[in-house]
Amino acid sequence: MRILFFVASLYGGGMERIAALFASHLVQQHQVIVADFSDNKRTYPIDPQVEIIDISPKSPIRAFHRMERMSNIKRTIKTINPDIIISFSVSLNAKVIKANRRLKKKIIVSERTTVSRSLNRTAEHARKKLYPLADCVVYVTKEDYDHSPHVKNKTYIYNPLTLEPYDNYEN
Questions:
Q1: The pTM is what?
Q2: Which of 128, 124, 34 is nearest to 85 (CA)?
Q3: Is 124 helix (H, G, I), strand (E, B) or coil?
Q4: Which of 19, 60, 83, 159 has the fewest CB atoms nearer than 10 Å to its CB?
Q5: pLDDT at residue 163 greater than cutoff 60
């Protein structure tokens, strides 16, 4: 199976750690491609079998970056032709769902922020109107799962615990 991950980056916090762990685990039995916007910055180790592609905007004109991000997401889905897409983070989840509408690939969005946390109106719109369009929404807690009655195809998976130290952790 070809699995395409979309992450804002693999540099920084907890969501990035989860994405690196999931991709590294899944690549043992599947082809895994991670598309990110971070200019190849990495905090967490990731299995070398995972293909990482940078889809960050390249335009020197910052005003075009939003449009370029959407175009890059859609082009990446078409080019990779994945069997399934897994997306992380509220704002990126919304963009990936929108880009995938006509392409109709299976999509899992992973909500790594507690839904009780107040977000901006755009993020709230994504949660209420776009998440129901995903094939599955993965929440991080049972409380978040229960807090989202508008989403029918959902589950929750607690964050995995790793006991190995990250020697290359930068912060």
A1: 0.85
A2: 34
A3: helix
A4: 60
A5: no
